[in-house]
Design goal:
Strand order of the largest sheet: 1-2
Radius of gyration: 27 Å
Number of helices: 27
Shape: globular
């Protein structure tokens, strides 16, 4: 059994036999998985509780990944770092798809499309387009180079330890930012599956992450990711196909959702003019106005609120009011802001939320509206339209370039047997990613149709159980309040976070709870698979590139692998601690990682492959300059990062570009600095230029 994931050595015959063995293993695995889900569905009908279903899914999936990790354990350097370079193209494509299908893709993508409509397509276009850049500019050439990591390439191509060290720092920065988002997703899913606290869910999920990457490195991670891809794509498809059949009787949601979008657009117009919705929006306008008055003199307003709350408590005590009323009054006093600064911050947040709720459609744009503003309107509307379109294109740019430069994705193409299979592997990666990304827009529209036509207008006492369940997990993700006291749910009385759209889809569609468990297991697989790859990237950057290449070149293979495992454990615990603080939404953390990777790596990698004249000092300066300008723009313009770094100056956007697309400034700066400095510094040595020729031409061998 332990040998079924052995990659072994040998020629094409050995590779063919190995691929046939893999086909047999994963066919049995897929069949067994379907039997497992059907068995759980039958047990649910026989009375198995939701809590037990959640625990069984969690334990079964993590147990499966642990089993693969144990069977794939290794201390061999080539196996640990690059899975022995024997992974067939189709399986590497599937593993890359799982590595790529992060919590942001599985959980956040459809939610973003639900909340933002057309503008959310920037993520799909950027991420899929990035793989075209990977195929054209990077994957085959890095495979021809044939080392273990991206800093490896930078160190060899540009000479010396400085480019390698900057590459290590950048790889850790973008990978750590990204992995925090994945572990946040793990905590969210685990808490929903089992009912445990979010923070505990993070550390439960962390066990599933570590057991694979810790024991077997890239070999264990690869075969686990193939298994995880099968789970996540099945889990994603089933509820979408069900919603499509329920609403249209057609089981192909990708083909039919355009018709549902027309109905959603018609409903949007009705909701925007609905008297009950207008009533709710007017109440929120009044709340916003009241908060604006308080913010004019926060100190006086806070003192007045405290005096009023204390007077009410005294009045209740004097009247011998029931203990419940007294407790509520005491809680109201305790919940008041502690000082003027806290009051100002709390009221500013509350006013922003009220302003959003005072807009039509709960602050969401019409789903089919391309950009905000109006190209044929007044000057302000035209400016809003131009800025919105510019941000759409800037985000696509950052995501494309960032995709092509993410170290944990590029490392996957070191694992295939040849340059040709590296290209084939990118094609397979695109196909497996396409399956989910082609479905996400349909899921967003079908869920919005369900919410608009079924949920809105439902009496509060008849709301489905999933509303209360998700409110218990996190009130910021799902909450409802009867603002106008009519007993009916209006759209603007509901707050729904994008991160639960996919996870709640089975319950929204009325499917059995076992499908909810399956979708949560798919989301868990997506988050775990990406977290495995990211943690391995960070640990390898520290153990292989920093320790072995820069500190102790004589370290034994066993020592290097052991150090990598220890570092992996430490980094995982640090990331889990940061994720437990709920630092920001998943999508911003992910997008920040893409901007960091784009600015730090893409110019240096592309010029290093295609331009012999690029020099080491120029590449080092270009990586620092590109990454530096990207980080600076985020720190000075993104609210959460401004708070972390204590920035109080007014926000000044460059050309109206939002901080999520900061890499749009860093990438050109990186290219410019590398090109200009290379032209005024001595050319690289003949050995380095021969390396470039070796990498560029598949049939060329180095002497």
């Amino acid at each position: 059994m332990a040998g079924m994931f052995e990659t072994g050595a040998g020629g094409s015959g050995s590779n063919k036999a190995f691929k046939q063995q893999l086909n047999k293993v994963y066919k049995w695995y897929t069949g067994g998985f379907f039997v497992f889900v059907v068995a759980l569905a039958i047990l649910e009908q026989m009375g198995l509780s939701r809590e037990w279903i959640g625990f069984i899914f969690l334990l079964a999936t993590i147990g499966l990944y642990a089993g693969i990790g144990i069977m794939s354990r290794t201390t061999d350097a080539a196996e640990y770092y690059v899975a022995g370079r024997r992974v067939p193209a189709v399986y590497n494509g599937m593993a890359t798809g799982a590595d790529w299908m992060s919590a942001a893709s599985f959980i956040g993508m459809a939610g973003t499309l639900y909340l933002t409509g057309y503008s959310g397509l920037a993520f799909i276009m950027g991420w899929t387009g990035g793989y075209c850049l990977v195929a054209l500019f990077l994957a085959p050439y890095l495979r021809k180079f044939g080392q273990f990591t991206i800093p490896d390439f930078l160190g060899e191509r540009y000479g010396g330890n400085l480019p390698r060290f900057i590459g290590i720092f950048a790889a850790i920065l973008c990978s750590f930012t990204y992995v925090v988002a994945q572990i946040y997703g793990v905590g969210l899913i685990t808490s929903r599956l089992t009912g445990v606290a979010f923070e505990l869910g993070i550390f439960l999920g962390l066990g599933g992450i570590l057991v694979c990457s810790f024991l077997g490195g890239m070999r264990a991670v690869t075969w686990t990711q193939v298994a995880q891809y099968i789970i996540l794509i099945v889990a994603y498809m089933i509820p979408v196909v069900w919603l499509s059949v329920k609403q249209t009787s057609v089981p192909v949601p990708q083909a039919i959702y355009g018709f549902q979008l027309e109905k959603v657009t018609a409903k949007e117009k009705l909701l925007a003019a609905d008297p009950k919705e207008l009533e709710v929006r007017e109440i929120f306008k009044q709340r916003s106005a009241a908060l604006a008055e308080k913010l004019k003199n926060p100190a006086a307003a806070l003192a007045a609120d405290k005096a009023a709350a204390e007077a009410k408590l005294a009045q209740l005590r004097a009247a011998n009011a029931p203990s419940a009323e007294l407790s509520a009054a005491e809680k109201a006093i305790a919940d008041l802001p502690k000082d003027e600064a806290a009051a100002k911050a709390a009221w500013t947040r509350a006013k922003a939320a009220a302003d959003t709720k005072a807009r039509p459609l709960n602050g969401m744009p019409p789903h089919a509206q391309q950009f905000s503003g109006d190209p044929n309107g007044d000057a302000a509307a035209v400016a809003a339209y131009d800025t919105s379109r510019l941000n759409f294109l800037a985000l696509i740019f950052c995501l494309m370039i960032g995709t092509a430069a993410l170290p944990h994705i590029l490392m996957r193409y070191y694992t295939v047997p040849s340059v040709r299979e590296a290209r084939e592997s990118v094609t397979w990666s695109l196909f497996f990613i396409f399956l989910l990304y082609f479905t996400a827009p349909a899921l967003a529209v079908l869920v919005k149709y369900e919410v608009f036509h079924v949920l809105v207008g439902t009496p509060f006492d008849q709301l489905p159980a999933w509303v209360a369940s998700w409110n218990k997990v996190d009130p910021s993700l799902m909450s409802i309040t009867d603002i106008n006291k009519d007993g009916l749910l209006q759209l603007n009385e509901m707050t729904i976070g994008g991160d639960i759209i996919v996870l709640a889809t089975p319950e929204i569609g009325g499917l059995p709870y076992v499908i909810s468990g399956l979708v949560a297991a798919g989301g868990l697989a997506a988050a775990l698979s990406t977290a495995d790859g990211l943690l391995l990237t960070i640990a390898n950057a520290l153990s292989h590139d920093l320790y072995y290449k820069m500190i102790d070149p004589n370290a034994s293979t066993a020592r290097r692998v052991t150090i990598s495992k220890m570092l992996l454990l430490i980094v995982a615990l640090c990331a889990a601690y940061v994720a437990a603080q709920k630092p920001a939404d998943i999508l911003f953390l992910v997008s920040a990682a893409f901007s960091f990777a784009a600015a730090a790596f893409f110019p240096a990698l592309v010029l290093g492959i295609f331009w012999k004249r690029a020099t080491g000092i120029a590449a080092s300066a270009g990586m620092v300059a590109g990454l530096g300008i990207t980080v600076y723009y985020m720190v000075t313009t993104q609210p959460w990062m401004r708070g972390i770094f204590g920035v109080t100056s007014p926000i000044e956007l460059w050309f109206g570009i939002l901080p999520i697309s900061a890499g749009v400034f860093g990438v050109p700066v990186g290219f410019a600095v590398i090109i200009l400095l290379s032209l005024v510094t001595p050319a690289p040595s003949r050995k380095v230029q021969q390396l470039v020729e070796h990498v560029r031409y598949p049939s060329l061998r180095m002497n």
